[in-house]
Amino acid sequence: MNPNPTLRLPRPTALAVAGSAAMLLAAPAFTQAQSNIKPPQAQAWIDVATFSGMGMPMGGTAANPMAALGGLFGSGGAKNDFGNTRAGSAGRWVDVTLLSRNNPSLAEAEQAVPVGFMPSALKLQSPKQGRPPENDDGVVEHDFERPRGKLLLYWGCGGTVRAGQPKVLDMASASADDIAKFFVSRRATQRGAHSSVGRPVWPSPGDARMLPNTASLVGEHAFSGNGVPTGFRFQIPSTQDLMPPLELKARDAGGAVELSWAAAPTARAYFATGMAAGAKEEVVLWTSSELPDTGTGLVDYQTNAAVDRWINEQVLLPPSITRCTVPKGVFSGEGALLRLIGYGHELNLTQPPRPADPKAAWEPLWAVKLRVKSVATTMLGMSELDGTGKPASDQSAPVSPEREASKDKPPGALDILRGVLGR
């Protein structure tokens, strides 16, 4: 999670990635530099996301305070634009990108979809500008700006702060090495659906239909277009369907914060993180990991291999867990921004599949990478929100006397923005 533009570092020290083996495991087999393995003639990326609670922008929009403000009030998802799987606006979103190596200038394509998803085929169109990525399958990193003030990091679920916490970083005296050691963040996020000339995408200017409330991806899909191999046809099983909203709830429990959420049947794992302003020029971070991790790389799609590895390391919560307590005293009062991600099961398909013999020649006609996630965001002290970003009817959580006294005066935009950005 990184909604705060003051929590950004120079690229060389952006991520001290723990578990580099997970990054290696993330690379699909056809990207290996072997003479007997060729890249697929066509490749599709499908990103599937569900956002609930307060819509919060991520990725490139996170550094824009006004974009953050718009996301808080759900204005970022008014229409079905490409990139909503990253924008964070409450709702259910699907992004698609198609590449044809037989036709690098592919302008348009179609994706036949089950009638349970859309009543007719999706129209994919290439954007007018945008450079192709240098590496379609490498782990994606982000630039970060240098933070200011003092940062305090807590980690782990439980009622009390554990010995040795918090981990403190004082930017007034921190060296580059200190910053790198503090900002340990696991990440195995590969490139998914993206915008680039010659790679048609959906939603597109010619087809920006919103997903029906009952939309399901389950069933047969097929791509067609100039240079797209005939027979680019595949099945999406229920495991990779749109995930339900997690309905994250935060309850003050005598200074601790009890988090609970609705179980997602297809979730592979969960990860929770929080941030709040502390004392003057202090920012408090917390994650549900049993190991110190700032979480800046984890609230995003991750590969199946990385998720499994990090469950075993107790960095991620197994799918059977639907509760976690933020220790008492980590977040004092209202205003802590809390986020939860449920990781779906990534689907990687190739035709033909790779031969069992690693020395055998392999020239796949097509490949598909489909990623699934569900992300919920809430703020401690605000009314619980349902999956659409609107106040839920259940107001059973206790309300502080201060909040009760001011309930007729909702927080102003600047109050919320300051709370989110730690200012």
Question: What's this, in brief?
Answer:
This protein has helices at 20-26, 65-72, 84-87, 176-182, 304-312, 401-405, 413-421, and strands at 42-53, 91-100, 108-112, 122-125, 150-155, 167-170, 201-202, 219-224, 233-236, 249-253, 256-260, 269-277, 282-287, 323-326, 337-343, 347-351, 366-379. It is of the alpha+beta class and 423 residues long. The longest helix has 9 residues, at 304-312.
CA radius of gyration:
22 Å
Largest sheet: 10 strands, mixed
**Termini Cα gap:** 17 Å
| Helical fraction | 10-25%
Instruction: Enumerate how many helices there are, as a single number.
Output: 7
Report the portion of residues in β strands.
25-35%
What series of H and E elements makes up the topology?
HEHHEEEEEHEEEEEEEHEEEEHH
* Unreliable spans: 1-32, 56-77, 383-423
Task: Report the strand count.
Answer: 17
Content-based structural category = alpha+beta
Average residue-wise pLDDT: 79
* Assembly state: single chain
What is the general shape? globular
Note the topology.
Layout: H1 20-26, E1 42-53, H2 65-72, H3 84-87, E2 91-100, E3 108-112, E4 122-125, E5 150-155, E6 167-170, H4 176-182, E7 201-202, E8 219-224, E9 233-236, E10 249-253, E11 256-260, E12 269-277, E13 282-287, H5 304-312, E14 323-326, E15 337-343, E16 347-351, E17 366-379, H6 401-405, H7 413-421
Parallel strand pairs: 1-17, 5-13
Antiparallel strand pairs: 1-2, 2-7, 3-4, 3-8, 5-6, 8-9, 10-11, 11-14, 12-13, 12-15, 15-17, 16-17
